[in-house]
Design goal:
The complex is a heterodimer of chains A (113) and B (111).
Chain A: E1 5-7, E2 10-13, E3 19-24, E4 31-37, E5 44-50, E6 53-57, E7 65-68, E8 75-79, E9 88-95, E10 103-104, E11 108-112
Parallel strand pairs in A: 2-11
Antiparallel strand pairs in A: 1-3, 3-8, 4-5, 4-9, 5-6, 7-8, 9-10, 9-11
Chain B: E1 9-13, E2 18-23, E3 31-38, E4 45-50, E5 55-56, E6 61-64, E7 70-75, E8 84-92, E9 105-110
Parallel strand pairs in B: 1-9
Antiparallel strand pairs in B: 2-7, 3-4, 3-8, 5-6, 6-7, 8-9
The chains are: A mainly beta (113), B mainly beta (111).
């Protein structure tokens, strides 16, 4: 297992376009998290899944954002009608239920022009 | 609200010990203290965590004050690869493991 994998690593899109990111967690990790990080700041929590159920969403997650985790394996994060303010690093993490350590991917850097 | 306070930056020399402080004066009895670090262009990486007792692992040591209002992450011999942003995080026991990051401490290691 190579850890948490995120694709693409970089995405440049025009304002108003839709984008989708994918996260493949560590096998058998039942918890999956999405975070967003802007320059000079720590990561901010967006949402998390336990298996296929989305159990919590931050108020940062506007209705233009949607996340899914079908079958409790990989997850996708979609941003519709992107805005320049969406430019950030989007990080995915996974962990085992009850475990004390989260494993992060290398992130997808989104630039909206 | 990260509910922890860390210095914005610290500097160390290679092969010297580094003590990274963190204040969490409003910590509750069931909150754990977790440390993560983020190397340039990488996602955060778990370092260590503790509740009351001091903890050691292969990466670092965590010293927790007796009143639990502060803690110190200790890197025993800093290397250039330890240059990173270090985050001190309070985590409620039994929570969904939602991490609340602050701005962390940027550690610079000089050769």
């Amino acid at each position: 297992d190579t850890g948490v994998s995120q694709n693409p690593r970089h995405k440049i899109t025009k304002r108003g376009q839709n984008v989708t990111f994918r996260c493949d967690p560590i096998s058998e990790h039942n918890r999956l998290y999405w975070y967003r990080q802007t320059l000079g700041q720590g990561p901010e929590f967006l949402t998390y899944f336990q298996n296929e159920a989305q159990l919590e969403k931050s108020r940062l997650l506007s209705d233009r954002f949607s996340a899914e985790r079908p079958k409790g394996s990989f997850s996708t994060l979609e941003i519709q009608r992107t805005e320049q303010g969406d430019s950030a690093m989007y990080l995915c993490a996974s962990s085992l239920l009850g475990n004390t350590e989260a494993f992060f991917g290398q992130g997808t850097r989104l630039t909206v022009v | 609200d990260a509910k922890t306070t860390q210095p914005n930056s610290m500097e160390s020399n290679e092969e010297e010990p580094v003590h990274l402080p963190c204040n969490h004066s409003t910590i509750s009895g069931t909150d754990y203290i977790h440390w993560y670090r983020q190397l340039p262009s990488q996602g955060p990486e778990y370092v260590i965590h503790g509740l009351t007792s001091n903890v050691n692992n292969r990466m670092a040591s965590l010293a927790i004050a007796e009143d639990r209002k502060s803690s110190t992450l200790i890197l025993h011999r800093a290397t250039l690869r330890d240059a990173a942003v270090y985050y001190c995080i309070r985590l409620s026991g039994g929570s969904n493991y939602k991490l609340t990051f602050g701005k962390g401490t940027l550690l610079t290691v000089n050769p």
